[in-house]
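Figure 6 in text form: structure in, sequence out.
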């Protein structure tokens, strides 16, 4: 899983996007997390680098020819560039800046190609020790490629093909008949590891979707789809509380007369009333508004409103007191008490705002009761 404090940019280029494609039905948030897993950690990176560079180094010393030296130089160059891109990507991701994801993804197949090149030149060298060591190195890399990059099955397949494909070519031109067995082994190995990567990818996506759904359920009201109390506090705390700024207003709404409707027409009618009330409340705010059901018949909305406090409360009351059709052919009206708490530099925490709005709401209720008593 991707570290929660690092967000890596999705690839933009056609080829890099194709390599990292996890599946059409994968949500955006999961795609971002999957791309993050491709960057791995520095210890894992150095483990792979040590293997490939060490083998190339040893065989370049054993065969100080142009082909083996070219392999060593290519390995060192590609690994150094990948390391630099990895470090830059991790630093930029940690501070929320775009990362060079396309470059990092395209360097991975190139790295696989250098491993395959080394296996090829070792096979045609006539040195069984060199061929064995290079083939073992390529096979070892395939396991790491599969289980480190299964978030992108296409990338896995391409890297395995570029790493092991040259082994087949080397076997064909080496003149050693026993090596022809690789023409059967390697295609089967490529198929098996690619299938394994796809299955692991599907399992990972299914797990991430389940976690996402569980997180959504934990922070949203199941009836209305609004945020619940925990979801409101979580959303307000995102980005260091930047979503709640001075100039915004918190409205605390409590339905008056909801219980009689519930008692007279049943819980299904009451649920219908709550869902319709939630939809009207959504319509009062902007797309950036935080709208929550705090429990029972109590709701909260935090947004930037143009009206003054008194005008805003009156607008909300008028909007919510329009008839609700709770059953076919049956409509009802309910009242609503509104508590208002403006967001200021001194009062930005949800706790403080809720306390202030709750006090304001009950003051409005008491005022309404006094008005009713005086009129009677």
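Output sequence:
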């Amino acid at each position: 899983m991707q570290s929660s404090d690092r967000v890596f940019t999705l690839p933009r280029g056609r080829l890099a996007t194709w390599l990292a494609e996890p599946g059409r039905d994968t949500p955006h948030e999961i795609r971002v997390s999957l791309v993050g897993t491709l960057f791995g950690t520095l210890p894992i990176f150095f483990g792979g680098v040590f293997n490939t560079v060490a083998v190339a180094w040893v065989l370049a010393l054993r065969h100080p020819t142009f082909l083996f030296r070219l392999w060593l130089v290519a390995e060192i160059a590609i690994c150094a560039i990948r390391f630099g891109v990895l470090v830059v990507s991790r630093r930029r991701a940690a501070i929320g800046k775009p990362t060079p994801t396309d470059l990092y993804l395209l360097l991975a197949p190139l790295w696989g190609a250098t491993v395959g090149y080394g296996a090829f030149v070792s096979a045609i060298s006539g040195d069984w020790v060199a061929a064995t060591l290079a083939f073992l190195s390529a096979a070892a890399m395939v396991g790491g490629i599969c289980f480190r990059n299964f978030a992108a099955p296409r990338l896995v397949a391409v890297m395995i093909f570029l790493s092991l494909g040259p082994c087949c070519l080397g076997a064909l031109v080496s003149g050693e008949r026993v090596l022809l067995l690789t023409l059967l082994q390697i295609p089967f190995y490529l198929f098996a590891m690619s299938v394994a990567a796809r299955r692991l990818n599907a399992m990972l996506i299914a797990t991430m979707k389940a976690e996402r759904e569980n997180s959504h359920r934990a922070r949203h009201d199941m009836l209305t789809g609004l945020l619940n109390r925990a979801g409101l506090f979580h959303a307000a705390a995102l980005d260091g509380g930047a979503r709640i700024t001075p100039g915004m207003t918190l409205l605390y709404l409590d339905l008056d007369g909801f219980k009689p409707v519930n008692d007279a027409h049943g819980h299904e009618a009451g649920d219908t009333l709550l869902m319709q009330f939630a939809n009207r409340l959504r319509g009062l705010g902007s797309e950036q508004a935080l709208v929550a059901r705090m429990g029972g018949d109590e709701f909260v909305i935090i947004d930037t409103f143009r009206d003054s406090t008194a005008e805003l409360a009156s607008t909300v009351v008028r909007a919510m007191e329009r008839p609700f059709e709770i059953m076919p052919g049956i409509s009802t009206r309910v009242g609503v008490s509104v508590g208002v708490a403006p967001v200021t530099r001194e009062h930005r925490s949800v706790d403080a705002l809720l306390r202030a709005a709750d006090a304001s709401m009950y003051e409005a209720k008491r005022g309404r009761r006094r008005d009713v008593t005086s009129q009677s």
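Caption detail: The chain has a mean pLDDT of 86.
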